[in-house]
């Protein structure tokens, strides 16, 4: 039982998600708790220099989640975890080699492996929910806590490929050659992701985000049937209100620009955008139905601080004044269009956040 | 002096590029001469198992260019070469490690290296022009020959990164931090690419294609200034007519879907599309101004032949009947949205080409 929560002090992020008035544009950064921060690297050493050692330890996961908030005036925290915890709980055997991406010991590549897949016992993900509750308390109401999961399709990519991929050959071979098997994987994943996110909400997550990191590798027409449809089912199954509070849902498809209107129609409160999308044009198309999150290229953070501030401000200006001439509000949450690079100079993030907070107040 | 050319027998590809009537939809496949063909691998062994050994030898380059035409009823040949020949001729030292991508021994990363860049002496690319002439003769007029180059931005990516990249950190750091240096590289590249493609046209290329393989990694607004503008300069500088024949120009930006209208406006005859773009919607937007090339996901070729044929036909149907109700024609050239995978079963390509030729005749 999570117990009594501290009173939320800065609700700007939640307000922007719900297209309510805000005093400034809220900011958070994908992968904001991560290797670019020396304090993160120090905690990771304590955890045996292991990513999953951090993620499965409630104390460490709490510690690293809060680190970027102590350094920067961010408007939301995001659970420190991985998008692949769900297939790991299905028994696929997740590991992270030194300097490598994730690997599954038991990829799902044939009919028997697909038939054996099942929604995992959520008790195997207890460490995630415990971390959510711990972080929510440790935040002391400073900012809201975002929970997250990979999308059914993105999880399926890793489950079939067994890790990252350049060409998605194995998963697309199954998709085109045995669509029945692919639909079965996606169906199991959608059920599992729905249960997983609802358990995060019950554990204390105040918003949830679905990362469709690999939706953008699909062909037009295929994306809609094999990625978006299953994300839609997840969104439809989520608790949208908990303990009297609305729980916003964010959907982010990397490379999803071609399908913006369709993504905005699946019932999420917020659509995440990568940097290839013109934010002002996206707002004109869907901004009266969903809030928009994004969309700075994380590589901008390698420019000198003055250029970083300038590019960040250009994103704010592209969205424009969130209040419409008729007095209603559209929602913008500033973010990167992808996770922050491990090589990012931390002081450049300081310059970004300061410039954004300052400039966004002038847009009200 | 290339001399007298054989009479062109199958001009379907050129006609489609110029939005003229055609009896069927012409087909060619990016990287159609490549490792998925056993006969290619055999020639490569003769060339010391070296990619550049093939590309720099006129006889071998001619041989491998014609191999896919002997196997499949393709409607165009494309010069066997690499997009990085131009920076190699600039002295950057191109090499291909075993099983690896391209590497430059001398990447361009600082002010001195940028200042030293110059349009290369075209004599250093003589092997390319000799191959073009040799292939044009060897084709005996069966189908037209396409020449090509990387775009100024795509070349710059490799020149600064020194090879492939996951995040384009070095080239984007220069772009955002020292845009003056990036513009100088792009200016030199645009001049070099223009001269290089014009020399290919003089040597016998009957159409030319600019591969902007990495334009899609740029942010909206940045793409237009750092990629599209320099491709536009190349297109503006090309010989569009040679020896009394129109020489069509194709521009392909992988991931360029968000900027389709802008790409279609730079003066090319044909715009290449990847598989994320809805071909029918693209035609409705720009099909009366440019022909469209694409856009099957190359991973479809790993499905069984029946599914391959079905997905290929779906691409044709998405474009629809090329003749408009008013009697004028739009142009469609069938292609993949990226190079064919080296792991592709060659007999699946047979199924694809046969199905496309058969079905596309029913659309007339």
List the helices and strands and how they pair.
Two copies of one chain form a homodimer.
Chain A: H1 12-17, H2 38-46, H3 51-55, H4 58-71, E1 77-78, H5 85-92, E2 94-96, E3 102-104, H6 111-116, H7 126-139, E4 145-150, H8 152-161, H9 169-177, H10 179-203, E5 207-212, H11 222-236, E6 241-242, E7 245-246, E8 249-253, H12 260-263, E9 270-272, H13 279-286, E10 291-296, H14 305-319, E11 332-336, H15 346-362
Parallel strand pairs in A: 1-4, 4-5, 5-8, 8-9, 9-10, 10-11
Antiparallel strand pairs in A: 2-3, 6-7
Helix pairs in contact in A: 2-4, 4-7, 7-10, 8-10, 9-10, 10-11, 13-14, 14-15
Structural commentary:
The structure is a homodimer of 364-residue chains. In chain A, 45% of the residues lie in helices and 12% in strands. With 364 residues, chain A is an alpha/beta fold. Chain A has one domain: TIM Barrel, CATH 3.20.20. In chain A, the strands form 3 sheets. A 7-stranded parallel β-sheet of chain A has the order 1-4-5-8-9-10-11. Chain A has a two-stranded antiparallel sheet with strand order 2-3. A two-stranded antiparallel sheet of chain A has the order 6-7. In chain A, helix 8 packs across helix 10. The longest helix of chain A is centred in the middle third of the chain and has 25 residues. Chain A is globular and about 60 Å long.
> Which descriptor suits the 3D outline of chain A?
globular
Q: Structurally, how many domains make up the residues of chain A?
A: 1
Q: Name the quaternary structure.
A: homodimer
Strand order of the largest sheet of chain A: 1-4-5-8-9-10-11
The succession of helices and strands of chain A, N to C, reads: HHHHEHEEHHEHHHEHEEEHEHEHEH
Mean of the pLDDT scores of chain A? 97
